[in-house]
Design brief:
By secondary structure, this protein is an alpha/beta fold. It has four domains: 10-211, P-loop containing nucleotide triphosphate hydrolases (Rossmann fold, 3-Layer(aba) Sandwich), CATH 3.40.50; 219-417, Rossmann fold (3-Layer(aba) Sandwich), CATH 3.40.50.300; 423-527, Winged helix-like DNA-binding domain superfamily/Winged helix DNA-binding domain (Arc Repressor Mutant, subunit A); 558-629, DNA polymerase, domain 1 (Orthogonal Bundle), CATH 1.10.150. The protein contains 27 helices and 17 strands. The strands form four sheets. It has a seven-stranded parallel sheet, sandwiched between helices. Strands 8-13-12-9-11-10 form a six-stranded parallel sheet, sandwiched between helices. The longest helix is centred in the last third of the chain and has 21 residues, at 558-578. The chain is globular and about 85 Å long.
């Protein structure tokens, strides 16, 4: 049995032999070479960009050279389990230490680690920095068997990051205690402030920084105005674009997660809830189903997602506004990791803006931190309200120019596919601000958005009569605009900081900057509120719809599709037998290539991307049998 030809380069030969890929992507080769040569590195690479290979290949190469074990610092048990399972499937001796192991199992892992036989050990930051584990690392270090530290999800160390975890702060001792052991820190997203914080807190001042493109061209971004029934908006999106496909729906509260999951399930969607308030066994069961079954929609708080490697998530939807662009980018990046078309869909409205600002204002953090968080929220609101290309704005936030050159249109976001109409809302904004000012003049009281819009539109309610607001000079001066447009105007004024909310009832008040708007010195251009989307409304030109089964990553003819389904059925049996997600055995893209090419021999099968030596040996003949019978 022969294998694909190998290069004399050790990292490249490992990539081909172990993982079954013919070439590195992007900056991977430079990163791997740098770390293999014992250089420190900070790697920023988008979700799905191949971050894991950037430390796994150096770990294997350095182990083969006699340098011992690589310790991978990872915050999530699920990620450890799946990555270790994938490595063992590929013939690499890896293990994890966490609470799921029995004492006997943990002792065996420790023996393998201390003997130097183990290539990679995954552990949480609190375990890596406890005294007993540090004593074991000391012993390895003294014997020259401590090869590399890989710190995954490195943004967790930064107070400016979107997922700060205090246990990451202690990881600075790794440099102090083991100065000759190289370190690689990795994250999918970090702005300039967060990058600087990571470097300082992890003592990576001398590390080489690698920043890959943040662009995920296969993801279509869409942000829509939230109407009175946002769950129905979500249901239309799922049914029209992603029927019977895997996805993640993010909600802000646990209660909303439970209610949304129950409602979607009642509407025929295979939806499961996930949040920290659920019993741990229930959370684990739901996560396992999401990873191992097709077409599950996980409705979750942000407690779910980090480290989820499922490649065929076809959409990520937000029913509530995230805290900042980093969170939005990280969460939407969980879609389309296989490179096939995927959607990032979000609905948001005035209440989202008000709630996020209130959470910042009411947090116990210091004023400097709150100021930073308000700035990050403002950037996200600007993205949501934008009338130009979403992708250009998103990349610009991370300091990256869109690769389209002078062309500032990506052709794969809602604003590019269907450019929104805009209107000059300057006069409307002046009317709205004048009305808030009149409220304050008329008895010094403040009111919320609903009452303000009623007065502007001339809607005579009991509350209007109670306060005599039908006598104000601003009564009914905005009767020509519907409520949706007034909410859009107010939302933009809050987003721009001209209006702010106060107190439990979120009453409205004017900021000092409102004076320039009232004087007509500031122009306000807004998107015209859109009607409810229709089926197939957004298209990707001549490409197949993301919701069609044949689009995602296949494009197979009828015969090849039949072979693909047979291979999937075989893979499901193997995955169940090994207690692993199916994609750990082979990803869909690899099965699709098998179905398309119909290899007739082990040599031909070994040429397919994603088929490494160990998997070829373990599964090759079975795959040829399945293809022969299909």
């Amino acid at each position: 049995m022969s294998l694909p030809p190998h290069s004399s380069s050790l990292p490249l030969s490992i990539l081909q032999e172990v993982f079954g890929y013919s070439a590195f992507r992007g900056a991977q080769a430079d990163i791997v070479d740098h770390v293999v040569a014992a250089g420190d590195a900070l790697v920023l690479m988008p979700t799905g960009g191949g971050k894991s290979l950037c430390y796994q290949i150096p770990a294997i190469a350095r182990h083969r050279a006699g340098h011992g074990v690589t310790v991978v610092v990872s915050p999530l048990i699920a990620l450890m389990h799946d990555q270790v399972g994938a490595l063992e499937e590929a013939g690499v001796h890896a293990a994890f230490l966490n609470s799921t192991l029995s004492n006997e199992q943990a002792s065996q892992v420790e023996r393998d680690m201390m003997s130097g036989r183990l290539v990679m050990l995954y552990a949480a930051p609190e375990r890596v920095t406890n005294l007993r584990f540090l004593a074991q690392l000391d012993s390895l270090y003294e014997r020259g068997l401590l090869s590399l530290f890989a710190i995954d999800e490195a943004h967790c160390v930064s107070q400016w990051g979107h997922d700060f975890r205090s246990e990451y702060l202690a990881l600075s001792l790794l440099h102090e205690r083991y100065p000759e052991v190289p370190r690689i820190a990795l994250t999918a997203t970090a702005d300039d402030l967060t990058r600087a914080d990571i470097i300082e807190r992890l003592r990576l001042e001398d590390a080489r920084v690698f920043i890959s493109s943040f662009d995920r061209p296969n993801i279509r971004y869409a942000i829509v105005e939230k109407d009175s029934k946002p769950r129905e908006q979500l249901l239309r999106f799922i049914q029209d674009e992603h029927s019977d496909e895997a996805g993640v729906v993010y909600c802000q509260s646990r209660k909303k997660v439970d209610e949304t999951a129950d409602w979607l399930a009642a509407e025929g969607i295979k939806a499961l809830p996930y949040h920290a308030g659920l019993d741990a066994a229930v959370r684990q069961r739901h996560q396992d189903r999401f990873l191992r079954e097709d077409s599950i929609v996980m409705v979750a708080t942000v407690a779910f997602g980090m480290g989820i490697d499922k490649p065929d998530v076809r959409f990520v939807a937000h029913l509530d506004l995230p805290k900042n662009i980093e969170s939005y980018y990280q969460e939407t990046g969980r879609a389309g990791r296989d490179g096939a078309p995927a959607d990032a869909w979000m609905t948001y409205g005035l209440a989202d803006v008000v709630n996020q600002r209130r959470m910042i204002d009411e947090s116990p953090a210091g004023e400097e931190f709150k100021k930073g968080q308000r700035g990050k929220l403002d950037a996200l609101l600007a993205l949501a309200e934008a009338t130009d290309c979403r992708r250009v704005r998103l990349l610009s936030y991370f300091g990256e120019a869109y690769a389209g050159g002078h062309r500032l249109s990506c052709g794969n976001c809602d604003n590019c596919l269907q450019p929104p109409a805009t209107w000059d809302a300057t006069e409307a904004a002046r009317k709205l601000l004048s009305c808030i000012y009149r409220f304050h003049q008329n008895g010094g009281q403040r009111f919320g958005a609903g009452h303000l819009i009623d007065v502007l539109r001339g809607k005579l309610t009991d509350k209007v009569t109670q306060y005599g607001h039908q006598t104000l000079s601003t009564w009914a001066i905005g009767a020509e605009l519907p409520e949706t447009q007034w909410r859009a105007v107010l939302r933009q004024l809050i987003a721009l900081g001209h209006v702010f909310t106060e107190g439990e009832y979120m009453t409205l008040a004017l900021a000092d900057s409102a004076r320039a708007v009232l004087k007509g010195e500031v122009q306000l251009l807004l998107r015209v509120p859109s009607a409810a989307p229709k089926k197939g409304r957004l298209t990707r030109g001549s490409k197949p719809s993301a919701g069609s089964r044949s689009a995602a990553p296949l494009d197979l003819d009828e015969a090849a599709q039949a072979r693909f389904e047979q291979l999937k059925a075989w893979r499901a049996e193997v995955a169940k037998e090994h207690s692993l997600p199916a994609y750990v055995i082979f990803q869909n893209v690899t099965l699709a290539e098998m179905a398309r090419q119909q290899p007739q021999s082990l040599d031909e099968l070994g040429q397919i991307s994603g088929v490494g030596a160990k998997k070829l040996e373990a599964y090759g003949r079975e795959i040829l049998r399945v293809l022969g019978e299909a």
